Every structure is written in C-alpha cells, then in structure tokens.
Amino acid sequence: MNFFKNILLIFFLLFSFNLAFADTNDSTKEIVEKAKEITKDLENNKVEEEDVPLNDPFAGNEGSNTSVNLETGEERDEMSLYNFKLSGLISGTNASYISLTNASGEVLTITLGQHLGEIKLIDLRLTEAIFQKEDKSYMIIDFNNQIRETDEY
User: Fold this and answer.
1) Which of 12, 18, 58, 142 could form an SS bridge with 128, CB 3.0 to 4.6 Å?
2) Rounded to an integer, what distance in angstroms lies between the CA atom of residue 112 and that of residue 123?
3) Quick check: 42 and 35 in contact, CB under 8 A?
4) CATH assignment of the domain containing 109
5) For residue range 119-141, what is the model confidence (pLDDT) as tens digits?
6) pLDDT tens digits for 11-51?
7) Domain residue limits at 103
C-alpha cells in the first residue's frame, strides 16, 4: 500500500512541477510546499485495510439451500435431498438416471428404484425427479433446486 502511495506522490509532484512552469501566478516554491503538506497529510491518515468477509464470495450458492420443511431435521442428514442439487437427467427406454451434486461439487448418479438415504427415486419428468419417502409421501426436486413435498404426484 505504501508503494502505491509513493508512486502516486511522485506522479503528483511531477504534475505539479509541470503546472508550476505553466502557471505564472504561483511560484515553484509554493507548489512544492503544497505538495509536501499533502504528503504529510497522506502519511498521517493511514488507511486501515478491510477485514476479509466471513463468507467466501466465490462459493456461489453453496451455502444457500432452498427447502420447504426445515423443522423435520431431515436436512441434517448427509444423504438428505436438501443437501443436493439436480444437475442432470437422462431418461431412456431401458434405464433412467439422474445426477445430483452436493455442496462440495461431488456428483452422485442414481437410477430408477435406487435409494438416496431413506427416499427412493421412483419417476422422472422432463425437468424434475420424484422420490418416494417411507411414509408413502413424495418429494419432487427440479433444476431450480426447489424441493416440494406432496402426497401425490
């Protein structure tokens, strides 16, 4: 930071000497004195560096997770659907797959009938995946990371 102040001061002094030769009203000594005063003011007013933010601005939406039902404690489970984002969907005649990405960027691929923790992937649509919970209710996740819990789909 001091290096940049010194460079700025040098440019300022050079610029003020150029003005001294162009301006006939002020003498060179007055301009040099003004430059020295400005330099002293800059040295006296040290700029404090800013603290680093607590959250990483480059992490994106890693810390935020859209969920509807927070009071169940389900989001605390590592294999909970609330900890994943739907990142891919492939549907074919013989097999269908979805790709889920967690907060650390790891990709998990699940096929129809396979379990994710306590829920089971049972169906796919063009833009969403449907899971069935143990109590026969359904959880639907879409590409906007919106998770809905319904009794029927």
Assistant:
1) 142
2) 7
3) no
4) 2.30.30
5) 999 999 989 999 999 999 999 99
6) 676 666 554 455 455 567 787 788 788 777 766 665 555 66
7) 74-150
99, 106 contact by CB (below 8 A) = no
Instruction: Kindly state whether residue 142 falls inside one of the protein's structural domains.
Output: yes
- Are 101 and 89 in contact by the 8 Å Cβ rule? The answer is no
C-beta separation of 89 from 124 below 8 A: yes
**pTM score, whole prediction:** 0.51
Q: Other C-beta atoms within 10 Å of 74: how many?
A: 19
Q: Which amino acid is located at 38 in the chain?
A: I
Work out the mean pLDDT of the chain and round it to a whole number.
77
Structure-token match 């040098």, residue found: 10
Give whole-number Cα distances, 12 to 30, 47, 54, 59, 76, in Å.
14, 19, 37, 40, 58
